[in-house]
Design goal:
alpha/beta; six-stranded mixed β-sheet; 9 helices; 12 strands; binds adenosine-5'-diphosphate
Length: 250
């Protein structure tokens, strides 16, 4: 479990996150939603060790994040940023980079590292392009390669920052299927999503960040009774008799 206790964070004098208290548990998909600039990426960057909190605590599996060595944290938590570099290395080489936290010196991949890499490539369905350079692929294919790299990292906690924003519906649905398989295999999947429909359809829990505060944290079902999601987005939230969620004008 990742526990956030009174987490405050920001950039210099710009205080962004204010007193966040919440937890991410294994075997759950959590979608983090909220207006632009509300602090979603800041939250994810704190949980993945990229940004040091101003105050408060982040406890991962019972140990404060500050006590993790770099490699040990990278074996526990993975993170896919919003924007990823495009280079001329092949998809397979990129995915293998996910094994770095497990390598000693000199860096030599074991049979297990290679097997995990191939499994990650298969899990996102990019076996047919594994030998192609990243720079020759479409945006969606590149994104899949970056996702596969995080799967190869084989962490209990996986954070995605807007993984589907620029992808077409086919990739969006594939991503939803993948996160469910990861969740069912016992991992915690946390995704910052722009699309609140996708968030409500595909998540066990929704976290709403508004102006640096946690405005709501709970199941999609409980959000229909709470009102916070409707207030933050200025919409009406309805659950249909078939279990789907809809947003309409207030
Ligand atoms: P969101 O992910 O919800 O769009 P962010 O966490 O990216 O929001 O940003 C929250 C606030 O922090 C914004 O006001 C943004 O301008 C500011 N911010 C984000 N990154 C930086 C940075 N590296 N340096 C200074 N301010 C930043």
């Amino acid at each position: 479990m990742i526990e956030l206790k009174n987490l405050c964070a920001g950039y210099g004098k710009n205080d962004v996150l204010k007193n966040i208290n919440m937890r991410f548990e294994k075997g759950e998909i959590v979608s983090v939603i909220g207006p632009n600039g509300s602090g979603k990426s800041t939250l994810v960057q704190c949980c993945t060790g990229i940004l040091k909190p101003a105050s408060g605590e982040i406890i991962i599996d019972g140990k404060p994040i500050s006590e993790y060595k770099e490699k040990s944290l990278a074996r526990t938590v993975s993170y896919l940023p919003q924007i990823n570099p495009v280079s001329s290395i092949t998809v397979r080489s990129l995915v293998m980079h996910g094994r770095f936290p497990y390598l000693g010196y000199p860096r030599r991949y074991s049979a297990e590292d290679k097997e995990i890499t191939e499994n990650a490539i298969a899990a996102v369905g990019i076996g047919d392009i594994a030998d192609k350079p990243l720079s020759e692929l479409s945006g969606g294919q590149q994104q899949k390669a970056h996702i596969a790299m995080r799967l190869a990292q084989d962490t209990d906690y996986i954070f995605f920052d807007e993984p589907i924003t620029y992808l077409d519906i086919k990739y969006q649905l594939e991503f939803a299927g993948l996160t469910k398989r990861l969740r069912d295999s016992g991992k915690a999947v946390i995704a910052v999503l722009h699309d609140i429909n996708a968030a409500f359809t595909n998540s066990d829990k929704i976290a709403v960040i508004d102006n640096g505060e946690l405005a709501f944290f709970g199941t999609p079902e409980s959000a229909t009774k709470n009102g916070a999601v409707e207030d933050v987005f200025g919409v009406k939230l309805i659950k249909s008799e078939f279990g789907q969620y809809f947003f309409t004008e207030k």
